[in-house]
């Protein structure tokens, strides 16, 4: 299983862009089963592999006060077994048939996948249909996975350098919205939950009308449709899910906080801003701003703080795009004993330049090239493409074809829009300043 683990590495990795061929239009077939399951099929016969994926539109933001951590818990629990798969056998079936599988949870969705040789397509579909229709949710499984989640929390968050960084940022930016809970939630809440509460959470959210089944790879579309019907048509439809976004009051005054991490020796100086959600045009603009500030050795913050002044070991600017809101995070690791607070003026100076002057035509062209390369790279693996297709339907108003529109939207962003977004969202009175320091502090 995987959640957002080493935050610094994750933020840095997003900024690395590989050189790929020109983007090609992604062809796909989509339709709904009568039970509400949305199905997306993509044929790519370049390699004899197939990815079978299911995205459920449920994440930590759907949890109740006092019962956090359920969505991530189910990421684990639904590998326990089913009425037709003995406990502990799920992953054995995958490996015995030459496949790989995993799952991950965010604040907004849970994503399961298997990658098989294409002649094992039916195996993948059977496994996901069993997970959806016949899971075994009992005291043994809940107790077992509760211990697994606790150990994951210790390894991935509590005992990992910078592991709780996103948690502290979320708490600061979202005092009201459930994004402040974090994906893994509270172990106290999971310990207190009753079996019927877990069953109720499954019955409400892990239903076909709250899911997208995406199959991508070496498949025959018409034969795959027949298999989809055979394995998923009998899954009962659930009740309609009504979600109401929790509105946060605007941040109008800088919030300053300090957190401590016993696993680190180097502080992390962070400034974070609340920005629009991932389906907005401005969210794409903020992605481009991230690249200008910290996208590689030629980026503005890197050249200024790492190369020239040498007061930072590393810098990062990252648009953490979520469904309801986003978190725009700018940060730096001090070098050579520099005080964390001394990094703020340099970060702010580069933001101020973006707010004042248009980026150069050369920088703009570089951004366009970077994002095209990044777009193509993201769609080279079948499981990545399947996830992007599911994301389009889930998060872009049922627009599965968003995968083919995203690059066009990026290309349409102007230098003036970059300046305007920096002016609109990246101001001192709209942010959280977090001193993330070595030592012991807030307990999670």
From TrEMBL:
Residues 1-23 form the signal peptide. Residues 39-171 form the Peptidase M16 N-terminal domain. Residues 195-370 form the Peptidase M16 C-terminal domain. The keyword tRNA processing does not apply. InterPro entries: Metalloenz_LuxS/M16, Pept_M16_N, Peptidase_M16, Peptidase_M16_C. GO terms for biological process: proteolysis. Pfam families: Peptidase_M16, Peptidase_M16_C. Keywords: Hydrolase, Metalloprotease, Protease, Signal, Zinc. GO terms for molecular function: metal ion binding; metallopeptidase activity. Belongs to the peptidase M16 family. This is Peptidase M16.
